[in-house]
UniProtKB/TrEMBL annotation:
Belongs to the DASH complex SPC19 family. Residues 134-161 form a coiled coil. This is DASH complex subunit SPC19. The keyword Phosphoprotein does not apply. One of its GO terms (cellular component) is spindle microtubule. It comes from the Eukaryota. It comes from Aspergillus rambellii. Keywords: Centromere, Chromosome, Coiled coil, Cytoplasm, Cytoskeleton, Kinetochore, Nucleus. One of its GO terms (biological process) is attachment of spindle microtubules to kinetochore. Residues 101-129 are annotated as: Disordered. It is found in: Chromosome, Centromere, Kinetochore; Cytoplasm, Cytoskeleton, Spindle; Nucleus. InterPro entries: DASH_Spc19. Residues 103-117 have a biased composition (Polar residues).
Length: 169
């Protein structure tokens, strides 16, 4: 019985050694398990969508952006037209001012010439009265010319405003 008992103890010790060996092998295999779980976990970096869903998204984006783009284009074109009309107005004003400047220079030179000619012909009180009347008529003519130019400019501006109001309707 002692022999069978010692044989049993030896077999049990051998089983315990085998069990310890198995536990150490399992422990070494399982110790890396949390890292393996993290590595083997699937992560979706890109989500694949069906083509009809993608087309719907593109169309909705296009429907959302198109009115804004059209509105911005209309604002830009109206602003460009406004700047063009302003440029035309400034050019007309510049031409009018140049004409006034040129006519003023001509008037001054013609007045000097007329005054010189009148001074040579002046022989009495009637020529002085005539010279004063002539100066008054020249001044009146210049005032009327200025008034006509101003009215023409106002007429052009009103035409532009009318075209502008017709363009917006």
């Amino acid at each position: 019985m002692a022999a069978s008992l010692s044989s049993s103890v030896a077999s049990l010790q051998s089983s315990l050694g085998l069990l310890d060996s198995s536990i150490s092998i399992l422990d070494s295999g399982v110790s890396d398990f949390p890292r393996l779980c993290k590595v083997l976990q699937t992560t979706r970096h890109f989500e694949l969508l069906p083509e009809p869903t993608l087309r719907e998204a593109q169309q909705s984006l296009l429907d959302e952006i198109t009115p804004s783009i059209a509105h911005l284009l209309s604002l830009a074109s109206s602003h460009v037209e406004k700047l063009s009309r302003r440029e035309q107005g400034l050019r007309a004003k510049c031409e009018l001012q140049e004409g006034r400047l040129y006519s003023n220079e001509n008037r001054q030179s013609s007045n000097r010439t007329q005054n010189g000619a009148l001074g040579q012909r002046a022989s009495g009180g009637s020529t002085a009265a005539r010279a004063a009347e002539l100066r008054r008529l020249v001044q009146k003519k210049e005032r009327l010319k200025y008034t006509v130019e101003r009215l023409e400019l106002q007429s052009r501006q009103r035409e532009r405003q009318l075209r502008k109001s017709m363009a917006f309707q």
